Amino acid sequence: MKVLWFLPTHGDSRYLGTSDGAREVGYDYLRQIAQAADQLGYYGVLTPTGRSCEDPWVVTSSLIGATKNLRFLVALRPGLHQPSLAARMAATFDRLSGGRLLINLVTGGDPNELAGDGVITSHAERYEASEEFIRIWCEIVARSHDSEAYDFEGKHLFVKGAKLLYPPIQTPHPPVWFGGSSDAAHDLAAEHVETYLSWGEPPEEVKKKFDDVKARAAKRGRTIKFGVRLHVIVRETEEEAWAAADKLISRLDDETVARAQAAFAKMDSEGQRRMAALHKQGGGGRSREALEISPHLWAGVGLVRGGAGTAIVGNPQQVANKLREYQEAGADAFVLSGYPHLEEAYRFAELVFPLLPLEHGAPDALPGQKLSGPFGEVVANHFVPKSFEPKTSAS
């Protein structure tokens, strides 16, 4: 499996829904998180998009030189980007990063935000435009390797003689990732993308979505990969993990939750509707019993956070087992996050990476390298405890 982390360009904190403990998210902090993810061996990082976030393309391009192997999953927004310009942006980024770009196609689901960006279309029309957009984008980028031009005239978009002179490193184009829960989203995924993402619903529900997209892709003669977007709260013991989950929402008040849920209800995103419904299964309370919607799957994040609203909670083995449930459902990629994102990136890599069948991993130690201290030694990035024996001489 591949495991990606998250760049919190909309803010970071130790508590949800309050400014208490909030951190200023500037370049230095984002660079810390990106470099930690890079050095710890994460496959890549997702950067969110929307008016509540810093621009993902500016942020991630500024981090190319600060990282070595880390891939960047960056949003393209039909209606905000034109496909020809988006093709040039993507090709440039891919070349300058040495082939480390992943594309996150985002249609949007908040009518108020979309209107502020000049996109005033229905849910169905947005998916029509997104289908045309990604079709044009893929063709322009793929044809750039042979310097071919491309013509397209659709219902929403038009290009004539579109051409990209400087191709990306990845062929035929940087991989496209996409998530959506509606029929239109499943059709778009089956036709055009390399990886379909689901937010972290219970594994059996995620499997239904994967199976549906897989069947639609098969009818088109395609195969695609699957991933899940989740939060994680892992501690050395299960008790500590659940205590951390409780602490994360401990400063929420009823008014904040009600205001957030009212905003989510105005969205026309099927995925957001499904997320918002999860925490209501237990009667809308905030106890573990109300919010644990599947063993070790907790819906507390979705009380006030739009988008991905569930977290895997438990000790390292329990978290690893839950990820394997999703893997058995068809997922081979996971986009994870935790609060605060810098510390949690370390915690998850140190506690859970050794338990996972990763396609990637932390860099190997230099040949002959042996890091040691008075209480143990680190061999190939894993801590090996040693019995403590008092020394007779100074050390």
From TrEMBL:
One of its GO terms (molecular function) is monooxygenase activity. Catalyzes the desulfonation of aliphatic sulfonates. It comes from the Bacteria. The keyword Flavoprotein applies. It catalyses: an alkanesulfonate + FMNH2 + O2 = an aldehyde + FMN + sulfite + H2O + 2 H(+). Keywords: Flavoprotein, FMN, Monooxygenase, Oxidoreductase. The gene is ssuD. Pfam families: Bac_luciferase. This is Alkanesulfonate monooxygenase. The keyword Nucleotide-binding does not apply. Its EC number is 1.14.14.5. Belongs to the SsuD family. InterPro entries: Alkanesulphonate_mOase_FMN-dep, Luciferase-like_dom, Luciferase-like_sf, SsuD_RutA_monooxygenase. Residues 1-332 form the Luciferase-like domain.
